[in-house]
Protein backbone atom coordinates (compact mmCIF):
# COMPACT_ATOMS: atom_id res chain seq x y z
CA UNK A 1 0.00 0.00 0.00
CA UNK A 2 1.39 3.37 -1.00
CA UNK A 3 1.89 5.98 1.65
CA UNK A 4 1.78 9.72 1.18
CA UNK A 5 4.47 10.63 -1.34
CA UNK A 6 5.14 7.05 -2.50
CA UNK A 7 6.96 6.96 -5.85
CA UNK A 8 6.86 4.09 -8.40
CA UNK A 9 10.30 2.95 -9.57
CA UNK A 10 9.63 -0.03 -11.80
CA UNK A 11 8.53 -2.89 -9.63
CA UNK A 12 9.84 -1.15 -6.50
CA UNK A 13 8.05 1.48 -4.42
CA UNK A 14 10.00 3.99 -2.38
CA UNK A 15 7.84 5.39 0.41
CA UNK A 16 9.28 8.87 0.95
CA UNK A 17 6.85 9.81 3.72
CA UNK A 18 4.88 6.96 5.32
CA UNK A 19 1.27 7.71 6.12
CA UNK A 20 -0.25 7.91 9.55
CA UNK A 21 -2.13 4.73 10.40
CA UNK A 22 -5.14 4.88 12.70
CA UNK A 23 -6.93 1.76 11.50
CA UNK A 24 -10.56 1.47 10.38
CA UNK A 25 -11.92 3.52 13.30
CA UNK A 26 -9.53 6.30 14.41
CA UNK A 27 -11.78 7.27 17.33
CA UNK A 28 -10.98 3.99 19.06
CA UNK A 29 -7.24 4.70 19.04
CA UNK A 30 -6.75 5.78 22.67
CA UNK A 31 -3.37 4.31 23.43
CA UNK A 32 -0.32 6.08 24.87
CA UNK A 33 2.14 4.16 22.71
CA UNK A 34 0.45 5.13 19.44
CA UNK A 35 1.88 8.67 19.39
CA UNK A 36 5.19 7.48 17.95
CA UNK A 37 3.28 6.28 14.87
CA UNK A 38 1.52 9.63 14.55
CA UNK A 39 4.70 11.70 14.22
CA UNK A 40 5.60 10.35 10.80
CA UNK A 41 8.38 12.04 8.84
CA UNK A 42 6.06 14.08 6.60
CA UNK A 43 4.25 15.52 9.62
CA UNK A 44 7.48 16.26 11.47
CA UNK A 45 8.91 18.10 8.48
CA UNK A 46 5.85 20.36 8.44
CA UNK A 47 5.75 20.92 12.19
CA UNK A 48 7.78 24.11 12.04
CA UNK A 49 5.23 25.59 9.63
CA UNK A 50 2.67 25.09 12.37
CA UNK A 51 4.79 26.70 15.06
CA UNK A 52 6.45 29.47 12.99
CA UNK A 53 9.53 29.95 15.17
CA UNK A 54 9.87 33.68 14.59
CA UNK A 55 6.24 34.46 15.46
CA UNK A 56 6.24 32.05 18.37
CA UNK A 57 9.33 33.76 19.73
CA UNK A 58 7.61 37.15 19.52
CA UNK A 59 4.31 36.03 21.02
CA UNK A 60 5.82 34.02 23.87
CA UNK A 61 8.26 36.75 24.77
CA UNK A 62 10.52 36.01 27.71
CA UNK A 63 7.85 34.33 29.86
CA UNK A 64 9.55 30.95 30.31
CA UNK A 65 13.03 32.45 30.47
CA UNK A 66 12.02 34.94 33.17
CA UNK A 67 10.14 32.25 35.06
CA UNK A 68 13.12 29.90 35.10
CA UNK A 69 15.48 32.66 36.17
CA UNK A 70 13.14 33.72 38.97
CA UNK A 71 13.69 30.23 40.45
CA UNK A 72 17.46 30.40 39.99
CA UNK A 73 17.41 27.62 37.38
CA UNK A 74 20.67 26.73 35.63
CA UNK A 75 20.04 23.22 34.25
CA UNK A 76 16.92 22.24 32.28
CA UNK A 77 15.60 18.92 31.00
CA UNK A 78 13.34 19.58 28.01
CA UNK A 79 11.32 16.35 27.97
CA UNK A 80 9.10 17.29 25.01
CA UNK A 81 11.73 18.64 22.64
CA UNK A 82 9.67 18.29 19.47
CA UNK A 83 11.52 20.04 16.67
CA UNK A 84 13.68 21.90 19.17
CA UNK A 85 12.15 25.38 19.51
CA UNK A 86 12.44 25.60 23.29
CA UNK A 87 15.71 23.65 23.55
CA UNK A 88 17.40 26.08 21.16
CA UNK A 89 15.90 29.06 22.98
CA UNK A 90 17.08 27.74 26.36
CA UNK A 91 20.60 27.13 25.10
CA UNK A 92 20.77 30.63 23.62
CA UNK A 93 19.72 32.07 26.99
CA UNK A 94 22.56 30.25 28.76
CA UNK A 95 20.73 27.30 30.33
CA UNK A 96 22.49 23.93 30.49
CA UNK A 97 19.92 21.97 28.46
CA UNK A 98 19.34 18.30 27.69
CA UNK A 99 16.71 17.51 25.06
CA UNK A 100 14.44 14.45 25.32
CA UNK A 101 11.65 13.16 23.11
CA UNK A 102 9.90 9.86 22.54
CA UNK A 103 9.83 10.38 18.79
CA UNK A 104 13.07 9.63 16.98
CA UNK A 105 11.79 11.61 13.98
CA UNK A 106 11.26 14.68 16.16
CA UNK A 107 14.71 14.40 17.74
CA UNK A 108 16.38 14.14 14.34
CA UNK A 109 14.59 17.31 13.21
CA UNK A 110 15.47 19.07 16.49
CA UNK A 111 19.16 18.23 16.06
CA UNK A 112 19.02 19.58 12.50
CA UNK A 113 17.28 22.77 13.71
CA UNK A 114 19.86 23.26 16.46
CA UNK A 115 22.58 23.47 13.85
CA UNK A 116 20.50 25.67 11.54
CA UNK A 117 19.52 28.16 14.27
CA UNK A 118 22.84 29.27 15.70
CA UNK A 119 25.04 26.24 15.18
CA UNK A 120 24.03 24.60 18.45
CA UNK A 121 24.71 20.91 19.00
CA UNK A 122 21.77 19.64 21.01
CA UNK A 123 22.37 16.89 23.57
CA UNK A 124 19.48 14.64 22.60
CA UNK A 125 18.13 11.57 24.39
CA UNK A 126 15.51 9.26 22.94
CA UNK A 127 13.44 8.19 25.96
CA UNK A 128 9.99 7.19 27.12
CA UNK A 129 8.82 9.39 30.01
CA UNK A 130 7.59 6.37 31.93
CA UNK A 131 11.19 5.11 32.21
CA UNK A 132 12.91 8.49 31.95
CA UNK A 133 15.46 7.93 34.70
CA UNK A 134 16.71 4.78 32.98
CA UNK A 135 17.95 6.86 30.05
CA UNK A 136 18.60 10.27 31.61
CA UNK A 137 21.21 10.48 34.34
CA UNK A 138 21.79 13.25 36.84
CA UNK A 139 19.36 15.79 38.26
CA UNK A 140 18.09 19.11 36.96
CA UNK A 141 16.86 22.42 38.34
CA UNK A 142 13.85 22.32 36.01
CA UNK A 143 11.90 19.97 33.79
CA UNK A 144 9.86 21.56 31.01
CA UNK A 145 7.12 19.60 29.25
CA UNK A 146 5.68 21.97 26.66
CA UNK A 147 3.66 21.91 23.46
CA UNK A 148 0.59 20.11 24.85
CA UNK A 149 2.74 16.98 24.90
CA UNK A 150 1.53 15.53 28.21
CA UNK A 151 -1.86 14.91 26.61
CA UNK A 152 -0.36 12.02 24.61
CA UNK A 153 -0.67 9.88 27.76
CA UNK A 154 -4.04 8.14 27.71
CA UNK A 155 -4.09 6.20 30.99
CA UNK A 156 -3.91 7.64 34.48
CA UNK A 157 -1.29 5.04 35.35
CA UNK A 158 0.92 6.38 32.54
CA UNK A 159 0.36 9.97 33.64
CA UNK A 160 1.23 9.22 37.25
CA UNK A 161 4.31 7.23 36.25
CA UNK A 162 5.56 10.00 33.96
CA UNK A 163 5.05 12.67 36.62
CA UNK A 164 6.85 10.50 39.17
CA UNK A 165 9.79 10.23 36.76
CA UNK A 166 9.79 14.02 36.27
CA UNK A 167 9.71 14.47 40.04
CA UNK A 168 12.60 12.05 40.55
CA UNK A 169 14.89 13.69 37.99
CA UNK A 170 14.47 17.10 39.66
CA UNK A 171 16.73 18.43 42.37
CA UNK A 172 15.18 18.89 45.81
CA UNK A 173 14.12 22.47 45.00
CA UNK A 174 13.41 21.97 41.29
CA UNK A 175 10.34 22.95 39.30
CA UNK A 176 8.26 21.36 36.58
CA UNK A 177 6.66 23.55 33.89
CA UNK A 178 3.92 21.70 32.02
CA UNK A 179 1.49 23.17 29.52
CA UNK A 180 -1.71 21.89 27.94
CA UNK A 181 -4.54 23.09 25.79
CA UNK A 182 -7.48 24.57 27.64
CA UNK A 183 -9.56 21.43 27.19
CA UNK A 184 -12.14 22.60 29.73
CA UNK A 185 -13.13 25.40 27.37
CA UNK A 186 -13.19 23.08 24.35
CA UNK A 187 -15.23 20.39 26.09
CA UNK A 188 -17.69 22.80 27.67
CA UNK A 189 -18.03 25.52 25.05
CA UNK A 190 -16.50 24.35 21.80
CA UNK A 191 -13.23 25.23 20.08
CA UNK A 192 -12.16 28.77 19.28
CA UNK A 193 -8.38 28.68 18.95
CA UNK A 194 -6.80 32.08 18.35
CA UNK A 195 -3.31 30.88 17.23
CA UNK A 196 -2.09 33.92 19.12
CA UNK A 197 0.66 32.34 21.21
CA UNK A 198 1.43 28.72 20.42
CA UNK A 199 0.62 27.69 16.86
CA UNK A 200 1.44 30.85 14.97
CA UNK A 201 1.57 29.59 11.40
CA UNK A 202 -0.76 31.80 9.36
CA UNK A 203 -1.72 29.28 6.67
CA UNK A 204 -1.95 26.24 8.93
CA UNK A 205 -5.06 25.14 10.80
CA UNK A 206 -5.08 23.04 13.96
CA UNK A 207 -8.56 22.21 15.20
CA UNK A 208 -10.43 19.35 16.82
CA UNK A 209 -12.14 16.97 14.44
CA UNK A 210 -13.74 15.07 17.33
CA UNK A 211 -13.78 15.47 21.11
CA UNK A 212 -15.27 13.71 24.11
CA UNK A 213 -14.10 13.30 27.72
CA UNK A 214 -11.64 10.60 26.66
CA UNK A 215 -10.38 11.75 23.26
CA UNK A 216 -9.41 14.95 21.47
CA UNK A 217 -8.66 14.13 17.83
CA UNK A 218 -7.00 17.15 16.19
CA UNK A 219 -6.62 17.70 12.46
CA UNK A 220 -3.70 19.73 11.09
CA UNK A 221 -4.04 21.16 7.56
CA UNK A 222 -1.16 22.67 5.63
CA UNK A 223 -0.98 24.99 2.58
CA UNK A 224 -0.17 22.10 0.22
CA UNK A 225 -3.53 20.50 1.19
CA UNK A 226 -1.84 17.75 3.19
CA UNK A 227 -3.38 16.92 6.54
CA UNK A 228 -2.37 14.94 9.59
CA UNK A 229 -4.01 13.95 12.88
CA UNK A 230 -3.10 13.56 16.53
CA UNK A 231 -5.19 11.63 19.04
CA UNK A 232 -4.80 13.10 22.53
CA UNK A 233 -6.39 12.89 25.95
CA UNK A 234 -8.31 16.08 26.90
CA UNK A 235 -6.88 16.90 30.31
CA UNK A 236 -9.04 19.11 32.48
CA UNK A 237 -7.20 21.79 34.44
CA UNK A 238 -8.15 20.76 37.96
CA UNK A 239 -7.46 17.10 37.20
CA UNK A 240 -3.93 17.93 36.05
CA UNK A 241 -3.31 20.09 39.10
CA UNK A 242 -4.54 17.30 41.38
CA UNK A 243 -2.22 14.75 39.78
CA UNK A 244 0.74 17.09 40.21
CA UNK A 245 -0.03 17.50 43.90
CA UNK A 246 -0.71 13.83 44.52
CA UNK A 247 2.62 12.86 42.95
CA UNK A 248 4.31 15.11 45.53
CA UNK A 249 4.70 18.60 44.10
CA UNK A 250 4.16 21.02 46.96
CA UNK A 251 2.73 24.03 45.18
CA UNK A 252 1.12 24.45 41.77
CA UNK A 253 0.40 27.78 40.06
CA UNK A 254 -1.51 27.91 36.78
CA UNK A 255 -1.26 30.62 34.11
CA UNK A 256 -3.59 31.17 31.17
CA UNK A 257 -1.79 32.25 27.99
CA UNK A 258 1.08 33.57 30.16
CA UNK A 259 -1.26 35.60 32.43
CA UNK A 260 -1.62 35.06 36.19
CA UNK A 261 -5.31 35.94 36.25
CA UNK A 262 -7.71 34.77 33.57
CA UNK A 263 -11.29 33.70 33.00
CA UNK A 264 -11.87 29.99 32.50
CA UNK A 265 -12.80 30.17 28.82
CA UNK A 266 -10.31 32.81 27.67
CA UNK A 267 -6.90 31.16 27.25
CA UNK A 268 -6.02 28.70 24.50
CA UNK A 269 -3.30 27.18 26.68
CA UNK A 270 -2.76 26.62 30.40
CA UNK A 271 0.72 26.54 31.95
CA UNK A 272 1.24 24.74 35.27
CA UNK A 273 4.28 25.56 37.39
CA UNK A 274 4.83 22.87 40.04
CA UNK A 275 7.40 23.22 42.83
CA UNK A 276 9.13 20.21 44.35
CA UNK A 277 10.67 22.09 47.27
CA UNK A 278 9.13 21.02 50.57
CA UNK A 279 7.10 23.78 52.16
CA UNK A 280 6.73 23.60 55.93
CA UNK A 281 3.59 24.58 57.83
CA UNK A 282 4.88 28.00 58.86
CA UNK A 283 5.81 28.97 55.30
CA UNK A 284 2.56 27.55 53.86
CA UNK A 285 0.58 29.93 56.04
CA UNK A 286 2.15 32.93 54.29
CA UNK A 287 2.16 31.69 50.67
CA UNK A 288 -0.99 32.44 48.74
CA UNK A 289 -2.15 31.47 45.28
CA UNK A 290 -3.13 34.18 42.82
CA UNK A 291 -6.86 33.69 43.42
CA UNK A 292 -6.42 33.78 47.20
CA UNK A 293 -4.25 36.89 46.94
CA UNK A 294 -7.01 38.65 44.97
CA UNK A 295 -9.53 37.82 47.69
CA UNK A 296 -7.06 38.77 50.43
CA UNK A 297 -6.40 42.19 48.95
CA UNK A 298 -10.14 42.76 48.57
CA UNK A 299 -11.08 41.84 52.15
CA UNK A 300 -8.11 43.74 53.56
CA UNK A 301 -9.33 46.97 52.00
CA UNK A 302 -10.96 49.61 54.22
CA UNK A 303 -13.97 49.74 51.89
CA UNK A 304 -14.68 46.01 52.17
CA UNK A 305 -14.03 45.84 55.90
CA UNK A 306 -16.27 48.80 56.71
CA UNK A 307 -19.03 47.62 54.35
CA UNK A 308 -19.23 44.06 55.63
CA UNK A 309 -19.06 45.06 59.27
CA UNK A 310 -21.68 47.79 58.88
CA UNK A 311 -24.15 46.17 56.48
CA UNK A 312 -23.65 42.42 56.28
CA UNK A 313 -24.43 41.49 59.86
CA UNK A 314 -21.52 42.43 62.07
CA UNK A 315 -20.04 39.20 63.41
CA UNK A 316 -21.54 36.83 60.81
CA UNK A 317 -20.73 37.82 57.24
CA UNK A 318 -22.33 35.03 55.26
CA UNK A 319 -25.71 34.08 53.76
CA UNK A 320 -28.58 33.86 56.22
CA UNK A 321 -31.57 31.58 56.64
CA UNK A 322 -34.55 33.95 56.48
CA UNK A 323 -37.97 33.18 57.88
CA UNK A 324 -39.31 36.48 56.52
CA UNK A 325 -38.18 38.41 53.45
CA UNK A 326 -37.69 41.55 55.57
CA UNK A 327 -35.91 39.88 58.47
CA UNK A 328 -32.80 41.45 59.99
CA UNK A 329 -29.63 40.25 58.25
CA UNK A 330 -27.77 39.54 61.49
CA UNK A 331 -30.59 37.39 62.87
CA UNK A 332 -30.85 35.34 59.68
CA UNK A 333 -27.08 34.96 59.48
CA UNK A 334 -26.87 33.69 63.07
CA UNK A 335 -29.66 31.20 62.29
CA UNK A 336 -27.37 29.66 59.65
CA UNK A 337 -24.71 29.12 62.31
CA UNK A 338 -27.22 27.51 64.65
CA UNK A 339 -28.55 25.23 61.89
CA UNK A 340 -25.07 24.07 60.96
CA UNK A 341 -24.07 23.49 64.58
CA UNK A 342 -27.14 21.30 65.11
CA UNK A 343 -25.84 18.90 62.44
CA UNK A 344 -22.53 18.04 64.11
CA UNK A 345 -21.51 16.43 67.36
CA UNK A 346 -19.77 19.07 69.48
CA UNK A 347 -18.64 18.92 73.12
CA UNK A 348 -16.01 20.59 75.26
CA UNK A 349 -13.41 18.09 73.97
CA UNK A 350 -14.10 18.84 70.27
CA UNK A 351 -11.45 20.60 68.20
CA UNK A 352 -12.96 22.71 65.41
CA UNK A 353 -11.21 24.37 62.46
CA UNK A 354 -13.13 27.21 60.78
CA UNK A 355 -11.62 27.91 57.34
CA UNK A 356 -12.45 31.35 55.96
CA UNK A 357 -13.64 32.44 59.40
CA UNK A 358 -14.25 36.13 58.65
CA UNK A 359 -14.95 38.03 61.87
CA UNK A 360 -15.21 34.79 63.87
CA UNK A 361 -18.91 34.90 64.74
CA UNK A 362 -19.37 31.14 64.27
CA UNK A 363 -16.27 30.35 66.34
CA UNK A 364 -17.49 32.44 69.27
CA UNK A 365 -20.96 30.87 69.06
CA UNK A 366 -19.46 27.36 69.14
CA UNK A 367 -17.02 28.18 71.95
CA UNK A 368 -19.69 29.85 74.12
CA UNK A 369 -22.36 27.23 73.48
CA UNK A 370 -20.30 24.03 73.73
CA UNK A 371 -17.04 25.03 75.40
CA UNK A 372 -15.05 23.60 72.47
CA UNK A 373 -11.72 24.85 71.17
CA UNK A 374 -11.86 26.57 67.78
CA UNK A 375 -9.06 27.53 65.43
CA UNK A 376 -10.00 30.29 62.98
CA UNK A 377 -8.05 30.37 59.73
CA UNK A 378 -8.60 33.36 57.46
CA UNK A 379 -6.72 35.17 54.70
CA UNK A 380 -7.60 38.75 55.70
CA UNK A 381 -5.40 40.21 58.42
CA UNK A 382 -7.89 43.07 58.79
CA UNK A 383 -10.79 40.69 59.49
CA UNK A 384 -8.57 38.64 61.77
CA UNK A 385 -7.75 41.72 63.85
CA UNK A 386 -11.48 42.33 64.37
CA UNK A 387 -11.91 38.66 65.23
CA UNK A 388 -9.21 38.78 67.90
CA UNK A 389 -10.65 41.99 69.34
CA UNK A 390 -14.23 40.65 69.52
CA UNK A 391 -12.96 37.37 70.97
CA UNK A 392 -11.02 39.17 73.71
CA UNK A 393 -14.00 41.42 74.53
CA UNK A 394 -16.17 38.33 75.01
CA UNK A 395 -13.56 36.57 77.18
CA UNK A 396 -12.97 33.68 74.77
CA UNK A 397 -9.25 33.96 74.00
CA UNK A 398 -8.53 30.72 75.88
CA UNK A 399 -10.81 28.80 73.52
CA UNK A 400 -10.25 30.54 70.18
CA UNK A 401 -7.03 30.88 68.19
CA UNK A 402 -6.92 33.09 65.07
CA UNK A 403 -4.42 32.15 62.35
CA UNK A 404 -3.50 34.14 59.23
CA UNK A 405 -3.39 31.72 56.32
CA UNK A 406 -4.85 30.11 53.22
CA UNK A 407 -7.18 27.13 53.13
CA UNK A 408 -5.32 25.88 50.05
CA UNK A 409 -2.31 25.10 52.28
CA UNK A 410 -3.52 24.50 55.82
CA UNK A 411 -0.65 25.00 58.31
CA UNK A 412 -1.81 22.09 60.50
CA UNK A 413 -0.89 18.45 61.03
CA UNK A 414 -2.77 15.49 59.60
CA UNK A 415 -5.73 14.20 61.65
CA UNK A 416 -5.75 17.25 63.92
CA UNK A 417 -9.42 18.33 64.00
CA UNK A 418 -12.74 16.67 64.86
CA UNK A 419 -14.73 19.18 62.80
CA UNK A 420 -13.88 21.41 59.87
CA UNK A 421 -16.35 24.26 59.39
CA UNK A 422 -16.64 26.77 56.55
CA UNK A 423 -19.19 29.39 55.52
CA UNK A 424 -19.31 30.95 52.05
CA UNK A 425 -15.54 31.03 51.67
CA UNK A 426 -14.41 28.32 49.26
CA UNK A 427 -15.81 30.11 46.21
CA UNK A 428 -12.81 32.45 46.53
CA UNK A 429 -10.34 29.65 45.86
CA UNK A 430 -8.88 29.06 42.44
CA UNK A 431 -8.32 25.41 43.41
CA UNK A 432 -11.28 24.03 45.37
CA UNK A 433 -10.06 20.49 44.83
CA UNK A 434 -6.93 21.41 46.77
CA UNK A 435 -9.02 22.96 49.55
CA UNK A 436 -11.06 19.77 49.93
CA UNK A 437 -7.89 17.66 49.92
CA UNK A 438 -6.50 19.80 52.73
CA UNK A 439 -9.76 19.55 54.70
CA UNK A 440 -9.74 15.76 54.50
CA UNK A 441 -6.06 15.67 55.44
CA UNK A 442 -6.51 17.56 58.71
CA UNK A 443 -9.74 15.75 59.71
CA UNK A 444 -9.48 12.99 62.29
CA UNK A 445 -10.91 9.55 61.48
CA UNK A 446 -14.70 9.84 61.80
CA UNK A 447 -14.36 13.63 61.74
CA UNK A 448 -17.07 15.86 60.26
CA UNK A 449 -17.04 18.54 57.59
CA UNK A 450 -19.88 21.06 57.53
CA UNK A 451 -19.94 23.98 55.14
CA UNK A 452 -21.91 26.35 52.95
CA UNK A 453 -20.81 27.91 49.69
CA UNK A 454 -22.53 30.02 47.02
CA UNK A 455 -22.59 27.67 44.04
CA UNK A 456 -23.58 27.37 40.42
CA UNK A 457 -26.65 25.21 39.95
CA UNK A 458 -25.69 21.86 38.42
CA UNK A 459 -27.69 22.58 35.26
CA UNK A 460 -26.99 26.28 34.88
CA UNK A 461 -25.68 27.97 31.75
CA UNK A 462 -22.12 28.99 32.64
CA UNK A 463 -22.38 32.08 30.45
CA UNK A 464 -25.09 33.38 32.79
CA UNK A 465 -22.58 33.47 35.64
CA UNK A 466 -20.11 35.75 33.85
CA UNK A 467 -21.20 39.02 35.57
CA UNK A 468 -20.81 37.39 38.99
CA UNK A 469 -17.49 35.72 38.19
CA UNK A 470 -16.09 38.93 36.72
CA UNK A 471 -17.07 40.84 39.83
CA UNK A 472 -15.31 38.29 42.08
CA UNK A 473 -12.31 37.84 39.73
CA UNK A 474 -13.04 34.11 39.55
CA UNK A 475 -12.97 31.75 36.60
CA UNK A 476 -15.52 29.29 37.97
CA UNK A 477 -17.78 28.35 40.86
CA UNK A 478 -18.38 25.04 42.58
CA UNK A 479 -21.69 23.22 42.31
CA UNK A 480 -23.53 20.63 44.42
CA UNK A 481 -22.51 17.95 41.92
CA UNK A 482 -18.87 19.03 42.09
CA UNK A 483 -18.76 18.90 45.88
CA UNK A 484 -20.55 15.54 46.05
CA UNK A 485 -18.18 14.01 43.52
CA UNK A 486 -14.98 15.36 45.05
CA UNK A 487 -15.94 14.61 48.65
CA UNK A 488 -16.87 11.07 47.62
CA UNK A 489 -13.60 10.64 45.72
CA UNK A 490 -11.69 11.76 48.81
CA UNK A 491 -13.38 9.10 50.90
CA UNK A 492 -15.96 11.07 52.88
CA UNK A 493 -19.21 9.22 53.54
CA UNK A 494 -22.85 10.08 54.18
CA UNK A 495 -22.63 13.27 52.17
CA UNK A 496 -25.79 15.29 52.73
CA UNK A 497 -26.83 18.54 51.10
CA UNK A 498 -29.65 20.59 52.58
CA UNK A 499 -30.80 22.78 49.70
CA UNK A 500 -31.70 26.38 50.54
CA UNK A 501 -31.32 27.85 47.06
CA UNK A 502 -34.21 30.26 47.62
CA UNK A 503 -32.11 32.06 50.24
CA UNK A 504 -29.66 33.36 47.62
CA UNK A 505 -32.05 35.94 46.17
CA UNK A 506 -33.52 36.71 49.61
CA UNK A 507 -30.19 37.35 51.28
CA UNK A 508 -28.57 39.42 48.56
CA UNK A 509 -31.82 41.29 48.12
CA UNK A 510 -31.79 42.19 51.83
CA UNK A 511 -28.16 43.33 51.65
CA UNK A 512 -29.02 45.47 48.62
CA UNK A 513 -32.00 47.01 50.43
CA UNK A 514 -29.86 47.87 53.47
CA UNK A 515 -27.11 49.29 51.28
CA UNK A 516 -29.54 51.60 49.54
CA UNK A 517 -31.41 52.52 52.75
CA UNK A 518 -28.23 53.36 54.66
CA UNK A 519 -26.26 54.79 51.76
CA UNK A 520 -25.78 58.25 53.27
CA UNK A 521 -24.84 56.75 56.64
CA UNK A 522 -22.06 54.52 55.35
CA UNK A 523 -20.81 56.73 52.52
CA UNK A 524 -18.46 58.42 54.97
CA UNK A 525 -16.72 55.10 55.62
CA UNK A 526 -17.07 53.43 52.22
CA UNK A 527 -16.18 55.04 48.89
CA UNK A 528 -18.86 55.86 46.33
CA UNK A 529 -17.12 53.80 43.66
CA UNK A 530 -17.13 50.75 45.95
CA UNK A 531 -20.82 51.20 46.78
CA UNK A 532 -21.72 51.58 43.11
CA UNK A 533 -19.89 48.37 42.18
CA UNK A 534 -21.35 46.57 45.19
CA UNK A 535 -24.92 47.45 44.23
CA UNK A 536 -24.36 46.17 40.70
CA UNK A 537 -22.84 42.98 42.09
CA UNK A 538 -25.70 42.42 44.54
CA UNK A 539 -28.25 42.82 41.75
CA UNK A 540 -26.41 40.17 39.74
CA UNK A 541 -26.61 37.77 42.69
CA UNK A 542 -30.32 38.42 43.12
CA UNK A 543 -31.00 37.88 39.42
CA UNK A 544 -28.86 34.73 39.37
CA UNK A 545 -30.74 33.33 42.33
CA UNK A 546 -34.15 34.09 40.88
CA UNK A 547 -33.18 32.61 37.51
CA UNK A 548 -32.13 29.36 39.16
CA UNK A 549 -28.52 29.68 38.03
CA UNK A 550 -27.23 29.85 41.60
CA UNK A 551 -27.79 27.66 44.60
CA UNK A 552 -26.76 27.53 48.24
CA UNK A 553 -27.26 25.24 51.20
CA UNK A 554 -25.57 23.26 53.95
CA UNK A 555 -23.27 20.33 53.18
CA UNK A 556 -22.48 17.79 55.89
CA UNK A 557 -20.06 14.89 55.38
CA UNK A 558 -18.17 12.43 57.58
CA UNK A 559 -14.67 11.05 57.23
UniProtKB/TrEMBL annotation:
Residues 353-451 form the Methyltransferase type domain. Keywords: Methyltransferase, S-adenosyl-L-methionine, Transferase. GO terms for molecular function: dimethylglycine N-methyltransferase activity; glycine N-methyltransferase activity. One of its GO terms (biological process) is glycine betaine biosynthetic process from glycine. It comes from the Bacteria. Gene3D superfamilies: Glycine N-methyltransferase, chain A, domain 1, Vaccinia Virus protein VP39. Pathway: Amine and polyamine biosynthesis; betaine biosynthesis via glycine pathway; betaine from glycine: step 3/3. Coiled coil: none annotated. Residues 76-174 form the Methyltransferase domain. Belongs to the methyltransferase superfamily. This is Glycine/sarcosine N-methyltransferase. It comes from Saccharomonospora viridis (strain ATCC 15386 / DSM 43017 / JCM 3036 / CCUG 5913 / NBRC 12207 / NCIMB 9602 / P101) (Thermoactinomyces viridis). The lineage of its organism: Bacteria, Bacillati, Actinomycetota, Actinomycetes, Pseudonocardiales.
